[in-house]
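To close the section, here is one more complete example, presented without commentary so you can practise reading it yourself. The ligand is PMT.
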Amino acid sequence: MIKDKVLDGKHVLIGVCGGIAAYKIPDLISRLTKLGAEVKVIMTKSAAEFVTPLTFQSMSHNPVAVDLFSEPVAWEIRHISLAQWADVMLIAPATANMIGKIANGIADDMLSTTAMAVRAPVLCAPAMNTAMYENAATQENLETLKRRGVLVIDPDSGHLACGDSGKGKLAPVETLLDEILCASAFSKDFAGKKLMVTAGATVEAVDPVRFLTNHSSGKMGIEIARAARWRGAEVTLVCGAVSEEVPRGVKTVHIQSAREMFEACTSRQKEMDVIIKAAAVADFRPAQTAEHKIKKEGAEFCGEIRLEQNPDILAYLGEHKPSGQILVGFCMETQNLLENARKKLERKNLDFIAANSLTELGAGFAADTNTVTVLDRDGSIEALPNMSKFCVAQHLLDRVRACL
Ligand code: PMT
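Output:
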């Protein structure tokens, strides 16, 4: 997950209802504040039975509004001011009762009243017993909320506090965080654009047990996919072997070999506005893959593996590039980085190329950061300082946006 202060200056309002999952919200608040957000919390009276307002106050460093019917003067003003203050509002855990109230225009406590006055995006994460969740009234109320533009974050299935197993578990904190980021932190300058990005290492089988691969973790491509989704693109991630979780909300196509990646990319090329190839593709594969495990002893293994060349996917995409499509490559070298990058930029018909060196500390394979030099078709060169792979992704997307 990203560590950059992408929520700097953002106001996140969280409405907590009375459910056992309320205990997960302090962790969410902690993550939001680490990303730079200011967080304020409204609790229903029953939420305060599960987690004390003091917990939320300590985590958010802000006073917590509990249902304040006993203080009508302050209440009248505060629900409006909190509604105006919010850049995004999340109701989590959202109970059947609160969902019902908001869907039916009932505003009889601080939380439901504020929800009605908010003009910023509203996210609602239900959590309840499976039968209550599946009840027709709850489902209709959720549909009503969706129709009105509320983003409903579906609950997970699993073992519930009431002892049942089924759907109704609050979505994980990572999911809530991801949706808050998506709703509030980025302009949607890629809305309506289809973007394909490749990530990770290809894997070339020697036999059913062994393979040839490389050290790519997939982090660079995954951060591009994540940033593009948060900026509104419809993202397809063609994903080789990676050590990271793939981001939510992107269509992921898992592949193993370079030939599978070739097929996945070329079959989708025409429908894409942007293609970014951050994967580390094996240039060679074993000429033959043994059907059975190669034994140490015996004639089957002769001490050498004959290799043959894989297709150059990016070169093919460059050759068949539809007009208007933006094609971006990466270049990874251990020597003559810029010279080689310039050759690849031209030979593969790219709009620009991001060159990174394996020899630099905190760059290239597996690091959370990268140091990239961007080479353009017009001959310009921009050397970016070392920064998180997420920030590199943002820079590259800014460039793509300017080309589109
Ligand atoms: O995944 P990480 O651990 O985060 O590491 C990120 C990275 C170092 C893998 C990434 O930043 C990177 O540099 N990716 C490209 C690595 C690479 O294969 O570079 P290359 O110079 O060999 O290839 C040039 C370009 O052609 C690349 O866009 C590559 O995807 C593409 N290519 C290469 C060979 C091939 N057969 N088909 C291709 O499409």
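Once you have examined the tokens, check your reading against these statements. Residues 286 and 365 are 23 Å apart (CA to CA). The first strand starts at residue 11 and ends at 16.
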